[in-house]
Amino acid sequence: MKPQSTIALVNRLVRESESRPRIFDVIEAQERLGYTFENANASLELLIARLVNGKKLPFSVISYHVSMRGSMEGDTKTGHICEASVKVHVGGAEFFEVSEASGPVHALDGAIRCALDKSRLPKLGPVRLVDYTVGLVNGTETGTGAKTCVRIVTSDQSVAWSTMGVSENVVEASLLALIDSLEYAFFRMGARK
Questions:
Q1: Is the dihedral of CA 167, 116, 98, 109 positive or negative?
Q2: Each residue of 116-133: pLDDT tens digit?
Q3: What CA–CA distance (Å, rounded) separates 138 from 184?
Q4: pTM, whole model, 2 decimals?
Q5: The dihedral formed by the CA atoms of 162, 44, 164 and 192, expressed in degrees to the nearest 10
Q6: Pick from 129, 186, 185, 141: which is nearest to 167 by CA?
Q7: Which residues pair with 113 in a beta bridge?
Q8: In sequence order, what are the residues at sequence separation of 6 or more whose Cβ sits closer than 8 angstroms to the Cβ of residue 176?
Q9: Which of 20, 26, 59, 139 is buried deepest, with most CB atoms within 10 A?
């Protein structure tokens, strides 16, 4: 998956030149928050679809909770487990699900998928996270209080796409990137709310 410049992607996706200045203003505001759309073309494509076509999310995460437990005693570290619960809104209905996994992003993904599976949206089937990276946003505070950017690469076995989330909280940044990755899967399928 070769990155495409933000300008090239906007020029390709936005036919009316009079819409472009407004779109570039929104993109610039997002970039000030820490987004880099050259590395997250799917997030940019979704942003443009929302601005130009008024595209609505096929689902929204209303609330979430993530917890982790494990043991670090002595020389033998025991396994740990993460639990995520999410409340998801889809087409007038709410679904609450809980999932356990080895990490917080995996647990969030599992809980969201369980909720979406109960909705009338198409099944996500082969859509899988294939890469996950975390970095600090340039020009922000350093250390554990720094703003983080999370980039997720997702694939449906035929095409891969990249999304991004930015927050001072790495779990929230991960969730934002994960939501975009799943929304883009539905976007590719033509799903509507």
A1: negative
A2: 999 989 899 899 999 999
A3: 26
A4: 0.88
A5: -80
A6: 141
A7: none
A8: 150, 164, 165, 166, 167
A9: 59
